[in-house]
Inverse folding.
């Protein structure tokens, strides 16, 4: 995050603005309303943050100092990241929509909760899809999307445990922010924007930490290393 300097600051502001806008769209029970505007807001955030995610992949995978990749490579890398984020987000939004409306639609609660199992499995199998799509488009990672999915076979619990470790690292920060939110809303000011203002640091920390965990898992799996020299010249 320090290495990317201004880019990290811009990404933080984007996430903060997105969190603030989402807070204004929430129901009284703090559950987001799955509307067209809500979906459009998240799509916009994904598009704006995608260049930063690509830079994070480059820095954390240590592919060397920037050079000129083949024409259109960075644009393809960014579009690949946006497409993956949107795919995962739409899956989560569909589940949230079912959860909000399961009573009206007559869908059993256990069935809706049961859908979390295949969703978890899909997310596990796509753990390395981000770096494969981003760095693969830049020509610095010799790993295809199918290869990234195949690499996670038989490592479901290892990847799940790594994800839980990320949660454990962020938990003290999250608890401190929750406590600060409750105190500020009770003693200082009650505002819908208070929570997103305090939660945005957790969002950007979880983004960076999750990519760092992906890199560590990649190395532990013994997959082909990224190489700055493999980039094709313009």
């Amino acid at each position: 995050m320090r290495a990317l300097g201004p880019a990290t600051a811009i990404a933080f502001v984007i996430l903060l603005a997105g969190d603030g806008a989402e807070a204004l769209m929430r129901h009284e029970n703090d559950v987001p309303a799955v509307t067209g505007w809500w979906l459009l807001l998240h799509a916009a955030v994904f598009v704006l943050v995608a260049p930063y995610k690509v830079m994070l992949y480059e820095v954390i995978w240590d592919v060397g100092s920037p050079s000129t990749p083949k024409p259109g490579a960075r644009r393809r890398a960014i579009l690949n990241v946006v497409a993956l984020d949107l795919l995962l987000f739409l899956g989560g939004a569909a589940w949230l929509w079912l959860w909000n409306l399961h009573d009206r639609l007559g869908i059993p609660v256990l069935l809706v909760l049961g859908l979390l199992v295949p969703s978890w499995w899909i997310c596990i199998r796509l753990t390395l899809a981000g770096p494969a799509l981003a760095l693969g488009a830049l020509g610095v990672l010799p790993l295809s999307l199918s290869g990234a999915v195949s690499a996670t076979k038989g490592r479901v619990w290892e990847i799940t445990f790594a994800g839980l470790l990320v949660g454990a690292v962020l938990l003290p920060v999250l608890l401190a922010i929750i406590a600060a939110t409750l105190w500020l809303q009770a003693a200082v000011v009650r505002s819908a924007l208070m929570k997103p203002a305090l939660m945005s640091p957790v969002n950007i920390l979880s983004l960076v930490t999750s990519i760092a965990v992906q890199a560590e898992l990649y190395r532990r799996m013994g997959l082909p290393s990224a190489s700055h020299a493999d980039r094709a010249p313009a």
Remarks:
- Confidence is low (pLDDT under 50) at residues 229-234.
- The chain is about 75% helix and 0% strand.
- The two ends are 28 Å apart (CA to CA).
